[in-house]
Fold this protein.
Amino acid sequence: MASLPDHKLPKDFLWGFATAAFQIEGSTDVDDRGKSIWDDFSRLPGKTADGRNGDVATDSYRLWKEDLALLKQYGVKSYRFSISWSRIIPLGGRNDPVNPKGIEYYNGFINGLLENGIIPFLTLYHWDLPQALHDRYGGWLNKDEVVKDYTNYAKVCFEAFGDRVKHWLTINEPWCVAILGYGRGVFAPGRSSDRQRSPEGNSSTEPWIVGHHIILAHAHAVKVYREQFKPTQKGQIGITLNGDWAMPYDDTPENIDAAQHALDFAIGWYADSVHLGFYPPYMREVLGDRMPDFTPEEWEIVKGSSDFYGMNTYTTNLCRAGGDDEFQGNVDYTFTRPDETQLGPQAQSPWLQDYPQGFRALLNYIYKRYKLPILVTENGFSVKGESDIPIDEAVKDDARVHYFQGTTEAMLSAIHEDGVDVQAYFPWSLLDNFEWADGYITRFGVTYVDYETQKRYPKDSAKFLIEWFKEHETIPTAIEQLPTSVDI
Ligand code: GBH
């Protein structure tokens, strides 16, 4: 008799919660930290929805022991967080001094994680470019300088932390850096052609140039890691990309094409280049000469420069041909089906609905196309009204529990029924935190943060996820080959 289907997670599956430095640390002028582009940007009037900035955030730079205690209480296997470049090299550049206090801080935190049996999963860049590099030479717009400076920063981190850190992400969501920072201008450094928004910038060229430079910087850092550190440190390294599932609005051929075009612009831009060694032909068709290209030598470094597929995903969009949003490949997004029904429950964030089938479809699409193990490094939901109700109600986050019920089961089906190789899952986020242009209004945490007291309150979604992973975790056995059933 065959054994019953084992609906457990693969043996070394990593799970934990995710955060990013600027969204939680605060203490922006402590211990010789330099400024990042988000410091000034978030202080400008009108850049965040509530007019608040990252100076305090969840105060995690000071309260790191509390965060650690929380992670321990939650029983996570891993924790995904990011390092602030401006704490490590305050002025950012390769000839600028390294800040021992910054290194010491992250050393303490990494050691604290390891002492508690929690595997550090480290992002090198989650959007907080040192301001000095932006002022000095235009930051991500300056290929020769930024590629060298980023690679140097990465190297400093491999040297300082790589004896203990075995999981590295080079860049978080380059699409957001390029499109939101240099196209729409809603994220730092806030460049855009829209002169009401920004005194300078060119939305039709800069995003594509910035994305191009980010890919190259990522690839060079990976090359350094593989050549100089991996042989002894034996870790894994890759990039993580945002990207939501794209579904045709209906089954007309132009809308079926539109969904693929949306994927090309949102995902293929980075994933085809990094994993397959080319830019999506449709991007060149739309952008023409504005789409840069790599030299054959550069492609050699770029192609295959990620050990895995790093996936940040939140929702699904219904796609229709047309519309003039070039950043979406001239594809129109909606959540409203032809029959006027909604795709799923609406989050607090306008861009997010709960549709777990899309997550499963995306996992399949990505695995088929890129043939790499998938690490889900972000997935999460903001709940309508959560910031306007008392704490004891806010922690009953049913809509978020519903979301995670759906996505965890969708992931399990993708693993067991579809054979997709998923190796990690990090819900976003450990804490409510500084939600970029939304300020503190939008909450993504599985832990509620009272921003007056900085007290942390576990929400029901944290409890749900902890239980779910307990139930589905495969406990390694001493005797690996133990039979699961005996044929009689
Ligand atoms: C993640 O990005 C970030 O990595 C994380 O820092 C953040 O806190 C989290 O999401 C929650 O937002 O309507 O054109 O402005 C998620 C990817 C891509 C989702 C851009 C929102 C809005 C597009 N994001 N998208 S637009």
In short: Residues 309 and 366 are 8 Å apart (CA to CA). The pocket of GBH is lined by residues 20, 23, 172-173, 176, 180, 184, 186, 242, 312, 314, 351, 378, 428, 435, 444 (CB under 6 Å). Confidence is low (pLDDT under 50) at residues 1-5.
